[in-house]
Write a structure and sequence with these properties.
Number of strands: 0
CATH superfamily of the largest domain: MetI-like
Structural class: mainly alpha
CATH class of the largest domain: Mainly Alpha
Strand content: under 5%
Mean pLDDT: 83
Low-confidence stretches: none
Radius of gyration: 24 Å
Order of helices and strands: HHHHHHHHHHHHHH
Number of domains: 2
Largest sheet: none
């Protein structure tokens, strides 16, 4: 009975196949355009199988020192910001998941409120300026500590763990930090992998706070570095409109920037994928 192919199975397979093509075709088009010349692109704007392949777009991008500065700054932001996000989110989620935590509903209410309202960028900028953190990497790191949505997912995951585990550890003399790091976290690898991926993507795509708080060219993040390179290529194309040989292929640079910015995250995602779905499903369902 289970091995039979029903008509509904065929219909679902066709629908999923169509959706897969709608996702894959634009991606392959972006990848292909990044490897072709302007002359090839002008013949057809949708390319899946290029006749001529060139690395000129990537060479021009990596020849600019700004992209290496962007990679360095974003890597530092990941190395410092993601552990801080995980520490703050994990510790607060563990505290709010305990049934005997004092004023638990009060704190949960104000966590949810931050998902709807915030103070705005002006008060945050004035605060960073008073703390003398503007034009430093710490301004980007500290402005984003806890994501309220991620906190709720992790809190629900912790609530699904057996309470008897922590009670048994308390009887043996373990404190709250010992329970968290030696009992709870080893059982929470799916949600930890999920939160690591979420925060890593957030930090990797960071650009708005960096644009507001940082003016130093040696601290530009990757997204802003790529943006400035693409804008410069567009300006160069406009200035050299009459000289085809001197023009830079702007669309190719854009597509190359997309691949350059998304490739590291694409490499990390398969390592966390087996934990990702489980962490999201368990953490999103309240016991």
């Amino acid at each position: 009975m289970h091995d039979r192919v029903e008509p509904l199975d065929i219909i679902l397979a066709v629908i999923l196949g169509v959706f897969a093509l709608l996702i894959l075709i634009p991606f392959f088009n972006v990848l292909t355009v990044s490897f072709v010349t302007q002359q090839v692109y002008l013949k057809s704007s949708i390319l899946l199988f290029p006749t001529e392949v060139t690395l000129e777009n990537y060479k021009m991008m990596f020849a600019d020192g700004r992209i290496w500065t962007g990679y360095r700054t974003t890597a530092l932001l990941l190395a410092v910001g993601v552990p801080l996000n995980l520490f703050l989110t994990t510790s607060m989620a563990y505290g709010l998941s305990r049934p005997d935590y004092p004023f638990k509903r009060f704190f949960i209410f104000f966590v949810v409120v931050t998902m709807l309202f915030n103070g705005g960028i002006v008060p945050m900028y004035l605060l960073m300026k008073q703390l003398h953190l503007t034009n430093t990497l710490w301004s980007i790191v500290l402005v984003y500590g806890i994501n309220a949505f991620y906190l709720i997912i992790m809190m629900n995951y912790f609530q699904n763990l057996p309470l008897a585990l922590s009670e048994s550890a308390k009887l043996d003399g373990a404190g709250e930090w010992t329970i968290l790091y030696r009992i709870i976290l080893p059982l929470s690898m799916p949600i930890m992998a999920t939160m690591t991926l979420f925060y890593a993507v957030d930090r990797w795509n960071e650009w708005f706070n960096a644009m507001i708080f940082i003016r130093k060219s040696n601290l530009v993040v990757l997204q802003l570095a790529i943006r400035s390179i693409v804008i410069d290529s567009q300006i160069s194309q406009q200035l050299n409109a009459s000289n085809v040989q001197a023009q830079q292929f702007t669309e190719g640079m854009k597509m190359a920037s997309v691949i350059v910015s998304m490739l590291p995250i694409m490499c990390v995602f398969p390592l966390l994928q087996r934990h990702f779905v489980k962490g999201m499903l368990v953490g999103a369902i309240k016991a």
